[in-house]
Write a structure and sequence with these properties.
The protein is mainly alpha-helical. The chain has one domain. It is built from five helices and no strands. α2 runs antiparallel to α3 and α3 runs antiparallel to α4. It starts with a helix and ends in a 14-residue tail after the last helix.
Length: 185
């Protein structure tokens, strides 16, 4: 009996330790973050060096490119910090201030935040397409619009499921009446 209990505990320990297999993945995303910083610097250099020779529309497109890089970088930060904190190990901030959103992050809220970031990135790409619409195939623009619409519908669905889950968890807390509304944060 005790041998099977020890085997069960050992197996459970291996399962819990397997969360550390994700750590190299987050390190890889940190490397990708560095690539985006490099890309941002290159694009900013081109913008500043060619300042006198660009038309307003070209400057707008270059600035949208910079915003796109920043938004993808923000997405990476959310995945790196939030994912590591949620799925690998809690991050203990000694002297640094943790991001405000990290206090209430879980797998469900991360999905909603990520979907909102994807909508923002998609919006930037769609805006670029609208600015250069005369150079593009209209069918491609319609496809981009359809994809953007699907991102929006997906985000609404994820937010709805997250809200329903949050409400169900709040209602299942002991000492709370099922009809009582959860306290607002």
């Amino acid at each position: 009996m005790s041998k099977s209990m020890n085997l069960g505990r050992a197996f459970a320990s291996v399962i819990v330790a397997s969360q550390w297999l994700q750590a190299p993945l987050y390190f890889g995303l940190i490397v990708a973050q560095g690539v985006y910083v490099w890309q941002f610097c290159v694009e900013l250099y081109h913008l500043v060096c060619g300042l006198g020779g660009f038309k307003a529309q070209e400057i707008m497109l270059m600035v949208l490119g910079l915003i796109d890089v920043v938004m993808i970088s923000n997405l990476l930060i959310m995945v790196i910090i939030g994912g590591y904190h949620t799925f690998v190990a809690k991050i203990h901030f000694s002297e640094q201030n943790p991001p405000d959103w990290l206090d209430h992050v879980n797998a469900s809220t991360m999905k909603v935040k990520l979907s909102m970031a994807l909508i923002g990135i998609s919006s930037i790409h769609l805006l670029k397409s609208f600015i250069e619409i005369e150079k593009l195939n209209k069918g491609d623009v319609y496809i981009q619009m359809g994809i953007h619409f699907l991102f929006i519908i997906s985000a609404i669905g994820l937010a709805y499921v997250a809200k329903m889950t949050e409400t169900a968890v709040a209602e299942s807390r002991p000492g709370r009446k099922p009809t009582e509304h959860p306290p607002q944060e």
